[in-house]
Automatic annotation (TrEMBL):
Family: Belongs to the RLP family.
Membrane topology: Single-pass type I membrane protein
PANTHER family to which the protein is assigned, alphabetical: LEUCINE-RICH REPEAT (LRR) FAMILY PROTEIN (PTHR48009:SF7)
Taxon lineage: Eukaryota, Viridiplantae, Streptophyta, Embryophyta, Tracheophyta
Keywords assigned by UniProt, alphabetized: Glycoprotein, Leucine-rich repeat, Membrane, Receptor, Repeat, Signal, Transmembrane, Transmembrane helix
Organism of this sequence: Thlaspi arvense (Field penny-cress)
Location of this chain's protein in the cell: Membrane
Identification of the protein by name: Leucine-rich repeat-containing N-terminal plant-type domain-containing protein
SMART domains per record: LRR_TYP (SM00369)
Ranges for domain Leucine-rich repeat-containing N-terminal plant-type: 27-59
One annotated Gene Ontology cellular component of this protein: membrane
C-alpha cells in the first residue's frame, strides 16, 4: 500500500514537470551532450548549433524564433503501459495508477551536415532512440565511430561522410536492422569491413575514399543496390557471394589492391548494370560460357582500365546485349581487335546496344585497325586506340588521337608474335 502511494506521488510530480518539458527527456539530454562534445571553436556564430540554448523546449520551439534548426521531431508518440513499468522515467505521463498513457515528441531526424563542426561523436547520440535519419556529413568530426551507434533501432539513413573519422566501422552496425542508406565515404576509416548481413533493408552503401583493408565484404545483404568502395586498400578478388546479391545494380571497387582473376559470374549477373574495377591489380578475367545467341547480362558499363590484364580482348564483351561503355585501356591486352567489337561499335544488331565508348588505348593490340572503324565520323563514338602496337593508326583518325603507337622494340619485347 505504501509503495502504491509513493507511486502516485511520483506520478503527480511527473505530470507536473511534463508541462515544462515536452520533448522526451533522454533526447534533450543527448542533444545537450552533443553540443558539449563539439569543439566550441568550431561552432560559428549564428549557426544552427549556436542557436541551441535550451531555454525553449526543443520540439516545442520548432516553429518559434529560436531552436528551430538541426533536427525534426515526430508528431507526438503516444502509448500506454502499466505504471510499474514506467514509473522511473521522467517524461510526461498522465493517467490513473493502473494504466498510464504517455505523450511526448521524440527527435526523428537530426541534420547538422556541412557545418565544419569538430570534436568526437558522442556515445549518447544513440540515446536518440526514435531517430530515423542522422546526417552529420561534411563536418570535421574526428575520432572513431562510437559502437553505440549500432544500437539505434529505427535508424534508416546514416550519413557520416566527409569528416575526419578514423578507426574501423563498428561490428555493432550489423544491429542497425532498419538501415537503408549508409554513407561513410571520405573519412580515414581503416580495418576490415564488418559483417552487415543483418541489414535486410540496406540498399545504398558508400564507403569510398577511406583506408578499409582486408577482403571485399562477402556478407552484404541481398537488398543492396549500390556498392561504392573505391579508393580503399582492399585485397583479393570479387567474392563468390556477390552472385547472391539479386538487387545490385552498381559496383565500384576501383582503386583498391584487388588482384588475380575477375570471376566470370559477374559478367552475367542477373541485375548488375555498372561494374567499375579500374586501378587495381587484376591480371586476368574469366570468360563466362556463352552460346552463339549471346549472353544474359544487364551490364551497361564496364570499366576494367588500369589493371594488368593479359591475353586477347575477351570476345564475350562484344556480345553483351546492353553494354554500351567498355574501358579496357592501360592493361596488357594483346592480339587484334575482334570483329564482335567492330560490329558492336559500327552497326550493332537490332535489339543490341552499340558501343558508344570503347577505350582500348595503352595495351599491346596489333594488326591493322579494322576498316569499318575507319568509316566512323569523328565525335560519333568515343573510340580510343592510341598507345598500342597497330601497324598503322594515322593521326588523322580521331580514335588514334594524333598520338603515336608504341615503338616496335617495345612491342616486340612484349610479344614475339608481333610482326
Ligand atoms: C544515454 O543512455 C545511457 C544508458 O541509458 C545513460 O547512461 C547516459 O547517461 C545517457 N546519456 C545522456 C546524455 O542522456
Ligand atoms: C589516417 O590514418 C592513418 C593511420 O591509419 C594516419 O597515418 C594518417 O595520418 C591519417 N590521415 C589523416 C588525413 O588523418
Amino acid at each position: 500500500m505504501a509503495s502504491l502511494l509513493l507511486s502516485f506521488v511520483l506520478l503527480l510530480l511527473l505530470t507536473v514537470s511534463s508541462a515544462e518539458s515536452k520533448t522526451f527527456w533522454a533526447d534533450v539530454a543527448a542533444l545537450k551532450e552533443f553540443k558539449n562534445s563539439v569543439d566550441p571553436k568550431s561552432i560559428s556564430p549564428g549557426s544552427c548549433l549556436s542557436s541551441w540554448d535550451f531555454s525553449v523546449d526543443p520540439c516545442d520551439g520548432l516553429s518559434g524564433e529560436t531552436f528551430t534548426c538541426g533536427f525534426r521531431c515526430d508528431s507526438v508518440v503516444s502509448g500506454s503501459g502499466r505504471v510499474t513499468e514506467l514509473i522511473l522515467d521522467q517524461a510526461g505521463y498522465s493517467g490513473s495508477l493502473s494504466s498510464v498513457s504517455f505523450n511526448f515528441p521524440y527527435l526523428q531526424a537530426f541534420d547538422l551536415s556541412g557545418n565544419y563542426l569538430s570534436g568526437p561523436l558522442p556515445d549518447s547520440l544513440s540515446n536518440l532512440t526514435r531517430l530515423t535519419r542522422l546526417f552529420l556529413a561534411g563536418n570535421s568530426f574526428s575520432g572513431s565511430i562510437p559502437d553505440s551507434l549500432g544500437s539505434m533501432p529505427v535508424l534508416e539513413e546514416l550519413l557520416l561522410d566527409n569528416n575526419r573519422l578514423d578507426g574501423s566501422v563498428p561490428a555493432s552496425f550489423n544491429g542497425l536492422t532498419s538501415l537503408k542508406r549508409l554513407e561513410i565515404q571520405l573519412n580515414n576509416i581503416s580495418g576490415k569491413f564488418p559483417d552487415l548481413s543483418s541489414l535486410k533493408n540496406l540498399y545504398y552503401l558508400d564507403a569510398s575514399d577511406n583506408r578499409i583493408s582486408g577482403p571485399v565484404p562477402s556478407s552484404l545483404p541481398e537488398s543492396v543496390v549500390q556498392i561504392s568502395m573505391r579508393n580503399n586498400l582492399m585485397e583479393g578478388t570479387i567474392p563468390e557471394s556477390f552472385r547472391k546479391l539479386n538487387s545490385v545494380e552498381v559496383v565500384d571497387l576501383s582503386n583498391n589492391k584487388l588482384s588475380g582473376s575477375i570471376p566470370s559470374f559477374i559478367f552475367t549477373h542477373q541485375t548488375l548494370q555498372q561494374l567499375t574495377l579500374s586501378f587495381n591489380g587484376f591480371t586476368s578475367l574469366d570468360s563466362p560460357y556463352y552460346s552463339p545467341l549471346g549472353l544474359p547480362s544487364e551490364l551497361i558499363s564496364v570499366d576494367l582500365s588500369n589493371n594488368q590484364i593479359q591475353g586477347p580482348l575477351p570476345l564475350f564483351l562484344g556480345l553483351l546485349p546492353k553494354l554500351s561503355a567498355l574501358s579496357l585501356e592501360k592493361n596488357s591486352f594483346s592480339g587484334m581487335i575482334p570483329t564482335q567489337y567492330v560490329w558492336k561499335t559500327v552497326s550493332p544488331g537490332s535489339g543490341y546496344a552499340g558501343f558508344q565508348r570503347l577505350l582500348l588505348g595503352g595495351n599491346y593490340l596489333f594488326g591493322v585497325v579494322p576498316g569499318p572503324l575507319m568509316t566512323l565520323k569523328p565525335g560519333s563514338r568515343n573510340v580510343q586506340l592510341e598507345g598500342n602496337c597497330f601497324s598503322w593508326c594515322p593521326a588523322t583518325f580521331f580514335f588514334c588521337r594524333g598520338q603515336e603507337q608504341r615503338s616496335l622494340t617495345e612491342c616486340r619485347k612484349f610479344s614475339r608474335v608481333i610482326p
